[in-house]
Amino acid sequence: MASKEIYKNRIELLQGTLDMLILQTLQWGAQHGYGISQAIRAGSGDVLQVETGSLYPALHRLERQKWVESEWRKTESNQRAKYYRITASGKEQLAANLSRWEKMVAAIGGVLRTVVE
What we know:
Strand order of the largest sheet: 1-3-2
Radius of gyration: 16 Å
Structural class: alpha+beta
Largest sheet: 3 strands, antiparallel
Shape: globular
Number of strands: 3
Number of helices: 5
Strand content: 5-15%
């Protein structure tokens, strides 16, 4: 597949959407950055691929907002990595984001159904 075609088929994530996906992934437990990106990729059936240039700035932003906390630990392969976990305020934010997301999906679906019919 040509690189132009790969780019055309790639789904870009809005900042708020990426934040929501990260917070949702951390609901399942603390994870390092690579693990978060792999969970998003696997959970989306390989459709969503979060690049490190997007992931780590998002994790740092979530940390500044106190929605995630981090600590250095050893991975399964004995490498040092920063693990992130969701905080109580992060869980509240995720619930609010999910509510807005569901409303937006319903609204877009309503417009698309009207246009198609």
